[in-house]
Amino acid sequence: MGATKTDHFTDEQNKIAIIAKALGHPARVAIIEYLLKVNTCICGDIVNELPLAQATVSQHLKELKNAGLIKGNIEGTAICYCIDENTFEILKDYFSNIILKTTNQKCC
């Protein structure tokens, strides 16, 4: 059996790609921005903020959670979502390194 394409890259490269893919939809960016604004919320609150069906919002929440961008706790019959600061720290470090290297770069 052959290796998958992701096997040819480092764990860090794969992690950044998963995070970037999850952020690659404007609805997910809007969900992140909403969670930052309110600090925590339940799924119903997010549905009221976006022009999307509840099932669509749930799918986007699932993608964000799978990428580690958000975390959720069950509270009764609802799930309370919030930002996963550890993943955003990974992004901060990754992009800070790029900015540092490109700032000092003398290229075209």
Automatic annotation (TrEMBL):
Gene3D superfamilies: Winged helix-like DNA-binding domain superfamily/Winged helix DNA-binding domain (1.10.10.10). InterPro entries: ArsR-like_HTH, HTH_ArsR_DNA-bd_dom, HTH_MetalResp_TranReg, WH-like_DNA-bd_sf, WH_DNA-bd_sf. Pfam families: HTH_5. The keyword Ligase does not apply. SMART domains: HTH_ARSR. The keyword Ligase does not apply. Residues 18-96 form the HTH arsR-type domain. Keywords: DNA-binding, Transcription, Transcription regulation. SUPFAM superfamilies: Winged helix' DNA-binding domain. NCBIfam families: HTH_metalloreg (NF033788). This is ArsR/SmtB family transcription factor.
